């Protein structure tokens, strides 16, 4: 099953989220509801401090848009793939997280599978891993027998593995390099709080120029 | 109670962001060719962006904040090139990172 890599990452990250939320004074019901309804990893991590600090509605909306604006990109690049997904489409769109996107963006579907059903199942399983992880984290808390320091790296490792796999499967590296270089430049210029939006604009800009070059 | 409202706000805003492109490009059956082009090249660029995003808190002046990251990422790239098994690469990289931050640095 293709979603296995995400299982490890999501369960681990979910546990981290559950622990964080518990420490902020919100129990298992909160962990379950947030993972069910929001289903966006880094947003939920940020959300812990938003709800425990009773931030204003406007602050919460703007923060959500800033952190999750990258999902616009995912949706744009999945428009064609999800076009005829029928009854699966609403859920596929709702569940298009970083991790699900990194599994489905290459468009590969196992032979003999209905692509829409396959994508639905990958999305659904990822969602279940994420909910399971956050509930586990909330329930187990600090009772784990070993130090979990550094476990958050599983998210980075997941993206790095996707990046490597896409890199090795094509000879056309300009888009990948664009993503890395533009984002790294924006990080240096705008700082770690405000670099995502400029990065996305910059990536669109460079890719638009690149398209004129190739066509 | 107020927290519950904030959770709903986060949920709805996230759903809106994910659905927006689908709502915009649904009426006419033909998606603009630039969007089709983006669908082809964006995945690689966005994954590259996400890798950098995960590394945003590195401080170049304090080696302990970037050496474990870079070592573990290099390890993931190596494992992926060798076996093309994402699960093994992710677990290997994460375990190496945990060892590095807990024991070495």
Give a brief rundown of this model:
Chain A is mainly alpha-helical and 215 residues long.
Description:
- The complex is a heterodimer of chains A (215) and B (105).
- Chain A contains 11 helices and no strands.
- Chain A has helices at residues 4-23, 28-37, 41-52, 57-68, 70-82, 89-94, 98-104, 115-140, 153-168, 174-190, 196-214.
- The model of chain A has no long low-confidence stretch (mean pLDDT 86).
- Chain B has one domain (2-104).
- In chain B, helix 3 packs antiparallel against helix 4 (86-104).
- The radius of gyration of chain B is 20 Å and the shape is extended.
- The termini of chain B are far apart.
- The model of chain B has no long low-confidence stretch (mean pLDDT 87).
List segments of chain A where confidence is low: pLDDT < 50 over at least 5 consecutive residues.
none
Main sheet specs of chain B = none
**Strand content range of chain B:** under 5%
Overall domain count of chain B:
1
The total count of helices of chain B amounts to: 4
Q: Which two chains have the most extensive interface, and how many residues on each?
A: A-B, 95 and 66 residues
Number of helices of chain A: 11
What structural class is derived from the secondary structure elements of chain B?
A: mainly alpha
Choose one word for the global shape of chain A: globular
> H/E element string of chain B?
HHHH
Distance between the termini of chain B: 43 Å
- The first-to-last residue Cα distance of chain A is 38 Å
Helix percentage of chain B:
over 70%
- The counted number of beta strands of chain B is 0
- Rg of chain B is 20 Å
Element pattern of chain A in H and E? HHHHHHHHHHH
* Mean pLDDT over all positions of chain A: 86
Radius of gyration of chain A: 18 Å
Oligomer: heterodimer
What spatial form of chain B do the alpha-carbon principal axes imply?
A: extended
Provide the helix percentage of chain A.
Answer: over 70%
């Amino acid at each position: 099953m293709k979603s296995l890599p995400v299982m490890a990452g999501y369960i681990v990250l979910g546990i981290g989220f559950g622990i964080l939320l518990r420490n902020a004074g919100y129990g298992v019901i909160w962990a379950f509801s947030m993972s069910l309804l929001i289903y966006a990893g880094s947003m939920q991590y940020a959300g812990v401090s938003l709800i425990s600090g009773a931030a204003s509605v406007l602050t919460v909306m703007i923060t959500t848009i800033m952190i999750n604006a990258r999902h616009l990109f995912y949706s744009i690049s999945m428009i064609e793939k999800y076009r005829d997904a029928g009854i699966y489409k609403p859920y596929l769109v709702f569940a298009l997280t970083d991790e699900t996107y990194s599994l489905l963006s290459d468009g590969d579907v196992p032979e003999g599978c209905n692509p829409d059903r396959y994508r639905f199942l990958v999305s659904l399983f990822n969602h279940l891993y994420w909910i399971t992880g956050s509930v586990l984290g909330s329930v187990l808390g600090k009772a784990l027998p070993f130090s979990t320091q550094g476990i958050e790296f599983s998210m980075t490792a997941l993206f790095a593995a996707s990046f490597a796999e896409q890199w090795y499967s094509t000879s056309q590296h300009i888009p990948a390099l664009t993503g890395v270089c533009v984002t790294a430049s924006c990080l240096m210029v705008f700082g770690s709080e405000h670099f995502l939006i400029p990065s996305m604009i910059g990536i669109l800009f460079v890719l638009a120029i690149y398209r004129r070059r190739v066509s | 109670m107020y927290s519950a409202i904030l959770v709903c706000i986060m949920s709805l805003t996230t759903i809106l962001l994910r659905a927006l492109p689908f709502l915009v490009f649904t009426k006419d059956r033909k998606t603009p060719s630039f969007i089709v082009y983006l669908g082809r090249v964006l995945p690689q660029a966005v994954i590259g962006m996400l890798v950098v995003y995960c590394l945003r808190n590195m401080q170049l002046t304090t080696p302990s904040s970037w050496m474990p990251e870079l070592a573990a990422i290099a390890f993931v790239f190596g494992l992926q090139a060798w076996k093309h098994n994402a699960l093994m690469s992710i677990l290997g990289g994460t375990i190496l990172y945990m060892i590095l931050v807990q024991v070495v640095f």
